[in-house]
Design a protein that fits this description.
This protein is mainly alpha-helical and 86 residues long. Helices cover 50% and strands 0% of the residues.
């Protein structure tokens, strides 16, 4: 896998993990808006912590994906997953 493919894979994983991490630890605003009843965005979203957690989790998932992709264990060139040549 080249550096560009690895970077694109990491960004896709990071973006997916971000949406998985965003809801953790969020609490709605205690007082709803008097007119609409809307509670809106969380008072303290802790986005810095979530970006850091997303980066670390994405790095672990990316490392596992690269290990599987680079290993001969899962290969379409040889082994039981290989395409049959005529």
């Amino acid at each position: 896998m080249g550096w560009f493919t690895g970077l694109v894979l990491y960004l896709l994983i990071w973006w997916t993990v971000l949406f998985a991490v965003l809801p953790f630890g969020t609490k709605p605003v205690a007082e709803a808006d008097e007119q609409s009843g809307w509670r809106g965005a969380p008072a303290h979203p802790h986005l810095g912590r979530k970006v850091l957690a997303t980066t670390l989790v994405a790095l672990l998932v990316w490392g596992a994906c690269v290990a599987v992709i680079e290993s001969p264990w899962l290969s379409f060139r040889g082994g039981w997953l290989a395409l049959h040549r005529e």
